[in-house]
Amino acid sequence: MTQALDICRYRPTDSVNLVIRGGGVSCGRSFGAGETGMLKLLHFGASVLLLAALLLMPATGAPVAEKVTNGQRTAALEFLSAVASGDPQAVAFAIHPDDLEALRLRILTLLRDEAKRGDGTVRSRLFGQGMPLDEIERLTNTGFYATLAYKLYLTGREYAEVEGLAAIADKGDHVQIVVRGRQPRDHGRVRVVNVVTVRPYGKDWKATLPSEIEAQIDDLIEGRHIAVGPTHASHGFAPDSRAAGTAAALPAIVELLKTAQESLDAGRCDEYYGKQMSPNFRRVTGKKALEALLASCQNSMGTRQLLLSTLRIVRGLEPRYENESQRAVYDLSGQGLPFQTFSLEQVDKHWYIAE
Description:
4-stranded antiparallel sheet
């Protein structure tokens, strides 16, 4: 700015001729009538208007908004609709495959390096304590994102259609698409402006991995608290179970979980299914099905480790009591387990694992 202002040097008594061209600003002293297309300014006015002109001029190389193409608008609508659906799998399919692959490879490298040091902190932060590394390695690109999404927060509205307002070139092949969404008739008349980053995908376009999601993943890796809304309904899971009417585990429950873990640690699967599992469960489960469960526990280290991981996680949580405190339910959302809840029940004044 200083360099630009130095172009015009004048005495307080001079008039200044200011010419604004496409390539810049030029000026000169004048004591007569100004030329056509020039502004004759006094000393004070020259300083103010010259500064304003320089501020209003587009900077060299600044992004220029262009018209949104049909392909770009379609990609933006696909992504916004996927987010509004609350389905992490749908969101994954709306994101450019190269972005998903880059995300998976970057995190897997981090988890493998961590495992070599005998640590699992980041793995637990991203996928929950119950998901082992070998299972994470088997996930596809879309499955990887969908599994990780239960630790993330992304919200959006449903739109009947979107109007493309501007396409602004960004770094590399990325383009920022500004759209105005029209909600379904029964959702109100307010039209909402959104920005979706897209990149070429063959002859079409796909949304990129949102920078907000990248920031949340970085927060999880570093152990920073993510400041989000009161619920995570957009990805179909609930907030911290301890904030949903839970209470401390009763001493009898604490003892049950401790004993069950000791049974599995020692490989006594018959004791686990015969003593710690509920009589109601054993009554409604067929004999052959019980034998299959017992055999799987005895012969499969993976099955036994899954049961042990569940018990270890549950022992660190608080249950929600139901049925007049005869049932205790643990919320296992986001813990990397193949089920969302773990239940105990009281039968004849004794607590058992319900299912």
